[in-house]
Fold Mur ligase central domain-containing protein.
Amino acid sequence: MIPATQIALTGSFGKTTTTNIIYKLLCEIYPLNKISVTDINLDTTFNVPITALKIKPWTKVALFELGVDHVGEMSKHLEIVHPQIAIITGITPVHTDKEHFGSLENLIKEKRKLLEALPENGYAILNYD
């Protein structure tokens, strides 16, 4: 189990920008060695486990960007990530073709898994737009 507070975010847009903003805010509170953040240059398949591996016992906050474009991908991420805070930047009909989610409904179900993974005392931050 990762001892740090875990923040996980997903959405159809704005994930990387939101990750960067949160990271900059966290840097105002904690020294850099107390924060672990997703490497946005890596494919989402690799960035979640690599981010988890970078976490040290002294890490205070782990920030995960969870990009998904297929059914079942969020569940794989959530085998590693156990967020106390979940952020959904917004959902639009991207990746809804047959090669990806197949429908907007499937996309929403997949993103919803992040919220369902929150503990009872967790926080969900949702885009109202």
